[in-house]
Write a structure and sequence with these properties.
The protein is an alpha/beta fold and about 425 residues long. It is built from nine helices and 23 strands. It has helices at about 15-25, 40-45, 80-90, 175-185, 210-215, 230-235, 255-260, 280-305, 395-410, and strands spanning about 5-10, 30-35, 95-100, 105-110, 115, 120-130, 135, 150-155, 170, 190-195, 200, 205, 210, 240, 260-265, 265-270, 275, 330, 340-345, 345-350, 365-370, 370, 375-380. A hairpin with a 2-residue loop joins strand 16 (about 265-270) and strand 17.
């Protein structure tokens, strides 16, 4: 392996976060290269289901020097549209992307870092890890106990109902991904059981405006990691139960119950053919309703205090989540005809290539708002990294600006 000529900065990942950093570095005159394991927007191209749309409206796709300029600002992009958006952005900013360059190691070399790929090596003074929060699927330990003959599929590998074998489907996880796939499969004629743990219920629209309008205008998305009492907890909360459908309908457990989805509690065990569920379903749903109403109350207070009441509809509240008085605590998967378990259990970052002492005892990178506990090493795109919106496309601009300011100071010896 022959080392390439040194560059000031190596950015790992050419998704929206890495491209935003590239634009900010270019604006500051900082030499850099962006290494991408596949192509630009690789995860959007290869790790999403066919019908998925963004949860955020088009107007909210704002990157440094690049915003939505179409005639459907309140629609939600399909995956091909997201890919086109990011491909166009990379071309517009002339991002120095090296595709097909999967990183295999990042090591210290005393004055900076050596970044190795499968075929090349790059020297640099600083590295930005922009591979995001959704790199590796997470599965509960009990997944290994699934009975033989039942297909096990993580949401990352789900594409459409046609790939699911005949029979019923149990989906584990009731955040945005789990509820959207449950809706699609039930409408496709499957018998769907949804295992529900902690989740955050939210209406698609509130008082005549998209929920994202409220989050954006009220400043909630801009809340920083320094303003919350328990940032570790804030970084691990589930995604909002939202769907970006053309008709802007709300997708919650009531909507799924209405079309025949069976709702059960959190999956806590698998024994033989039998799935075992927690008895906390009602409590989880009550807590979710309370969180939703607290959020809506925050919006109401903001509208009152800022004079926005006149431009939105009257205050509204929604029917509580309907929960069976006697939800099942066990289910014989084979006996009930369930042939597939789909794990909508989330993801975690992949920083396995880092050969640096920057991890805590649970394998998490130690950082302060994306500034890693190693000189010249930075993160981008993680959940609530610097702001509540850090993991969104819309959150990349502000975070990249902050990170690049710090990075330039570091390069200048400050």
């Amino acid at each position: 392996m022959v080392p390439n000529e040194d560059s000031a900065v190596v950015v790992i990942g050419a998704g929206h976060a890495g491209l935003a950093v590239s634009k900010c570095l270019t604006d500051r005159g900082v030499e850099h290269i962006v290494l991408e394991r596949g192509e630009v927007a690789n995860s959007w191209k290869t790790e999403r289901w066919d019908s998925l749309r963004l949860l955020t409206p088009n107007w909210q796709s704002r990157l440094p020097g690049f915003v939505y300029e179409g005639d459907e600002p309140d629609s939600y992009r399909t995956m091909p549209e997201v890919v086109d958006f990011l491909d166009n952005y990379a071309r517009t900013i002339s991002a120095p992307v090296r595709t097909g360059a999967a990183v295999t190691a990042v090591r210290s070399n005393g004055s900076g870092y050596r970044v190795a790929t499968v075929s090349e090596e790059f020297g640099c003074r600083a590295v930005v890890l922009a591979t995001g929060a959704c790199a590796v699927p997470t599965l509960p330990a009990l997944a290994k106990d699934l009975p033989t003959g039942i297909m096990s599929l993580h949401s990352r590998d789900y594409r459409n109902p046609r790939q699911i074998p005949g029979g019923g489907v149990m989906i584990v996880g009731a955040s945005a991904t789990g509820t959207q796939i449950a809706l699609e499969l039930q409408r496709a004629g499957r018998e769907v059981t949804l295992s529900v743990g902690e989740h955050i219920r939210a209406p698609r629209t509130y008082r005549g405006r998209d929920l994202e309008w409220w989050m954006d205008q009220s400043g909630m998305w801009d809340e920083t990691y320094l303003e919350v009492e328990d940032i570790r907890r804030a970084r691990s909360v589930p995604s909002l139960q939202l769907a970006g459908t053309p008709d802007r309908t709300t997708l919650d457990l009531n909507a799924l119950t209405d079309i025949g989805v069976q709702i059960v509690g959190r999956l806590v065990g698998l024994s033989g053919d039998e799935a075992q569920f927690s008895g906390s379903l009602r409590n989880q749903c009550t807590l979710s309703d309370l969180k939703m109403n607290r959020l809506l109350g925050t919006f109401d207070d903001w509208a009152q205090e800022t004079g926005h009441n006149a431009e939105v509809e009257p205050i509204e509240r929604f029917e509580p989540t309907r929960v069976s008085d006697d939800p099942p605590l066990t289910l014989n998967l084979i006996g009930e005809g369930i042939r597939t378990v789909l794990w909508a259990t989330g993801f975690k970052p992949d920083h396995s290539y880092l050969e640096l002492p920057v991890f805590d005892r649970k394998g998490r990178i130690l950082h302060d708002g994306g500034v890693v506990d190693a000189p010249g090493l930075y993160l981008m795109g993680l959940q609530f990294m610097r702001r509540r919106k850090s993991a969104l496309i819309d959150g990349a601009a502000a975070d990249a600006d902050d990170i690049c300011d710090h990075l330039v100071q570091y390069l200048n010896g400050r």
